[in-house]
């Protein structure tokens, strides 16, 4: 299955659970694309000892079936540069995810 996950917030437990689900899905043989939008582009700053988002992100990006994209406009509005774990993307890419994925989940 192709799974699209849209993260639009920075609540550490919610983002952590989104990545946990993404990692579990990959282990089940799925392809997962995460799109960060709005506050979601700041997700890395939400990592805590209890909800270690960075650990989940590292695990996620080890797979060839995993991809993270981030809204370029949202990054720019926060004066945030693109990174490997938050690469710049566009609404065109989000639209493509929606078209091509079997399921879309929002967090």
Automatic annotation (TrEMBL):
Note the SUPFAM superfamilies from the entry.
DsrEFH-like
In terms of InterPro entries, this protein maps to: DsrEFH-like (IPR027396), Sulphur_relay_DsrE/F-like (IPR003787)
Gene3D superfamilies membership: DsrEFH-like
GO cellular component labels: cytosol
Q: Which Pfam families match?
A: DsrE
Protein's name in the database:
Uncharacterized protein
């Amino acid at each position: 299955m192709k799974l699209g996950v849209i993260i639009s917030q920075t609540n550490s437990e919610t983002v952590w659970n989104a990545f946990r689900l993404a990692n579990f899905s990959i282990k089940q043989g799925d392809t997962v694309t995460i799109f960060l939008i709005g506050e979601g582009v700041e997700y890395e700053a939400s990592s805590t000892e209890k909800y270690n988002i960075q650990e989940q992100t590292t695990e996620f990006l080890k797979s060839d079936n995993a991809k993270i994209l981030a809204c370029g406009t949202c990054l720019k509005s926060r004066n945030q540069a693109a990174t490997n774990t938050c690469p710049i993307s566009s609404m065109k890419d989000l639209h493509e995810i929606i078209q091509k994925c079997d399921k879309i989940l929002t967090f």
